[in-house]
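Work Package 4 report. The design task specified in the project plan requires that, given a folded chain encoded as structure tokens, an amino acid be chosen for each position. We show below one input record used in the internal validation round.
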């Protein structure tokens, strides 16, 4: 293994060098081209001719390939037809082979596109003489993941075709009260439904697959991803009772969707089957890294496909979109495997039970934990619905290698002594409803924490979750547990590359244009600086935001307006029905409580028949505030008298006045702003 790694690194270093050399050559050529500008006109003609020629070649090639398969288009179509038979009530999964997509419809689309492009070139030539090619531009539109960690989604659009990359969710921050998850606003995709030809997914983390079931409700398109990712998606869609056209892709596969030639290449991350994805488009190749880090000793044994990345860079990449999560961190992110030793050490030291919490989707970490349990003769019991799910799917698909004898059911826990047990659970982020938090608060049905337990939190808090995690740790310690976290031991490493990893990626891909993605604003900016430091011109690097439209030709990239984008809140079964106003109300209620003013008015005279009665909740302790509350009643009475004498009878006006008067009064007295809810009843 070691010698293999040596070779691997030697080769990668050489590749990097080679690519850098190539880049130098390219820039030289670019400079030459600039000098030779007067000849541009000739170059243009040549180029147009070349475009048409390439188009023709494609056409011929496709025809040949049809001939080559020895079957007519109809036969190919019917073959596909049979594989496409809708599975009833169940999601269907197919293995995507490159040729499987060369069906009738798509071919027709491509040929049409070629013909249209040709025609356009013919008709538009006189008008656009001396201008650039009349081909459509490639549009790249991030709908999520910019200026935030979470809900990743990027749109690639060329002509009438859209391919969507990732459909993730974000977990709500603390101030989004009652919100379960946040998903991207995909209005743009709903408005362009017919254009969406495919959804490609880089890997199975929630911030990349979590909103897919919501997207598929609105947009019907086939989904492409590697085996484990498809497995995880399948589970989610079944839960949501949604059918999907799911297709398994193998890293290294390349297939055509309309004008796009799409390829997957393996990257290292904290989940197996993670990929970067490239799009060969008529204007050039665009590479999206997905989440990645360079890991020379990956736990799942599969190294990064540096060869493919370098090859792409060697042939020329128009634009790169790359993970910026750790762009502010110096150095390189250590390999997942550095945790192995420290996990073993912790397990060896523990005298009682071990409770290990991590992300449900961190399959690599789960594998390491189980390996450590096995090494020290402990049985493993898995808790938390999502983790049980992931373990099941990952085992079925061969990504998690664990013997049956290692795992036990919760009912069997009592059969083993504490030092023979490891409990795996969710809740590493302090989420109140997840396993670890319930154990910490004593509300878990099967596991009660007691002195002697060792709790290992093998994750670092996502920004915003620090308080929740801290609270959980406090509670665990109060119950007598020994808590190990990344603060006092090496039990977690990031799945995202730090600055040196990012530099290596940029050096390998050598893109003409660079768009940092997957990060908060400062991370994107830091990634931008880094790229500029590596020689990418300043005006070739773009820090955008969700909804930014980037338009690319084979030689230019610029921001061209915006489309609708933003967060959509999911609360229970409601998607998007909770907007900012509702959130503001919830925040006000949770901060300062509520005051209700009930008044009964006589129907015709508008005289006060009863009240005002003032009731409050979550505002003040009423028994200690009787004076203030009777003062409030007086104010309302005075206000009602005044309005009656002024002849004010509009209820809405009466309500507004009550709200204003009481709002001012309570703020003077308490410096709080409770929600004030006047209720007027009519009596005869
Ligand atoms: Zn990820
Ligand atoms: Zn991610």
């Amino acid at each position: 293994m070691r010698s293999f790694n040596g070779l691997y690194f030697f080769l990668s270093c050489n590749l990097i060098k080679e690519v850098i050399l190539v880049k130098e050559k390219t820039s030289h050529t670019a400079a030459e081209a600039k000098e030779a500008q007067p000849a541009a006109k000739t170059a243009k003609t040549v180029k147009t001719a070349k475009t048409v020629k390439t188009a023709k070649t494609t056409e011929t090639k496709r025809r040949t390939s049809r001939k080559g398969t020895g079957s007519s288009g109809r036969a190919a179509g019917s073959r596909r037809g049979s594989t496409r038979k809708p599975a009833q009530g169940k999601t269907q999964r197919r293995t995507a082979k490159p040729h499987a997509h060369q069906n009738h419809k798509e071919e027709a689309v491509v040929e049409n596109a070629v013909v249209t492009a040709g025609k356009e070139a013919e008709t538009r030539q006189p008008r656009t003489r001396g201008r650039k090619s009349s081909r459509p531009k490639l549009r790249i539109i991030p709908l999520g993941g910019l200026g935030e960690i979470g809900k990743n989604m990027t749109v690639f659009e060329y002509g009438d075709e859209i391919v969507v990359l990732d459909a993730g969710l974000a977990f709500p921050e603390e101030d989004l009260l009652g919100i379960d998850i946040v998903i991207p606003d995909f209005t743009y995709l709903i408005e362009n439904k017919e254009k969406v030809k495919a959804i490609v997914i880089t890997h199975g983390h929630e911030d990349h697959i979590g909103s897919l079931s919501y997207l598929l409700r609105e947009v019907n398109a086939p989904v492409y991803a590697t085996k484990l990712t498809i497995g995880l998606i399948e589970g989610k869609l079944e839960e949501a009772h949604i059918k999907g056209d799911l297709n398994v892709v193998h890293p290294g596969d390349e297939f055509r969707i309309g004008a796009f030639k799409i390829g997957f290449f393996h990257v290292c991350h904290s989940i197996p089957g993670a990929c970067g994805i490239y799009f060969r488009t008529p204007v050039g190749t665009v590479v999206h890294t997905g989440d990645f880090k360079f890991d020379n000793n990956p736990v799942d044994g599969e190294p990064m496909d540096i060869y493919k990345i370098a090859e792409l860079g060697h042939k020329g990449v128009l634009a790169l979109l790359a993970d910026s999560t750790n762009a502010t961190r110096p150095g390189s992110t250590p390999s997942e495997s550095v945790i192995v030793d420290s996990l073993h050490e912790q397990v060896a030291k523990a005298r009682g039970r071990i409770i290990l919490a991590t992300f449900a989707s961190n399959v690599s970490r789960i594998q390491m934990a189980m390996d450590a349990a096995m090494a020290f003769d402990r049985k493993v019991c898995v808790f938390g619905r999502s983790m049980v799910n992931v373990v099941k799917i990952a085992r079925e698909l061969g990504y998690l290698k664990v013997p049956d004898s290692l795992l036990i059911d919760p009912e069997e826990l009592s059969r083993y002594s504490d030092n023979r047990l490891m409990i795996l659970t969710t809740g590493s982020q302090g989420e109140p409803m997840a396993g670890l938090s319930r154990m910490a608060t004593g509300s878990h049905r099967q596991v009660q924490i007691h002195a002697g337990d060792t709790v290992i939190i093998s994750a670092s808090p996502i920004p915003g979750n620090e308080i929740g995690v801290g609270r959980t740790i406090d509670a665990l310690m109060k119950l007598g547990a020994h808590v190990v976290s990344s603060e006092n031991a090496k039990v977690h490493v990031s799945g995202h590359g730090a600055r040196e990893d990012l530099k290596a990626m940029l050096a390998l891909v050598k893109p003409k244009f660079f768009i940092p993605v997957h990060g908060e604003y400062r991370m994107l900016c830091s990634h931008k600086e880094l790229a500029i430091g590596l020689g990418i011109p300043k005006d070739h690097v773009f820090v955008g935001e969700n909804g930014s439209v980037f338009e690319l030709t084979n030689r230019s990239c610029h921001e061209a307006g915006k489309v609708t984008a933003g967060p959509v809140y999911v609360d229970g079964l409601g998607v998007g029905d909770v907007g900012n106003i509702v959130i503001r109300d919830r925040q006000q209620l949770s901060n300062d409580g509520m005051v209700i003013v009930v008044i009964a008015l006589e129907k015709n005279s508008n005289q006060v028949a009863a009240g005002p009665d003032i009731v409050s909740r979550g505002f003040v302790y009423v028994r200690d505030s009787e004076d203030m509350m009777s003062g409030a009643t007086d104010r309302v009475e005075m206000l009602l008298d005044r309005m009656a004498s002024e002849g004010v009878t509009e209820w809405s006006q009466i309500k507004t006045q009550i709200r204003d008067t009481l709002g001012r009064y309570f703020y003077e007295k308490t410096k709080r702003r409770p929600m004030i809810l006047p209720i007027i009843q009519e009596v005869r």
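The first strand starts at residue 92 and ends at 95. Validation will be extended to a larger panel in the next phase.
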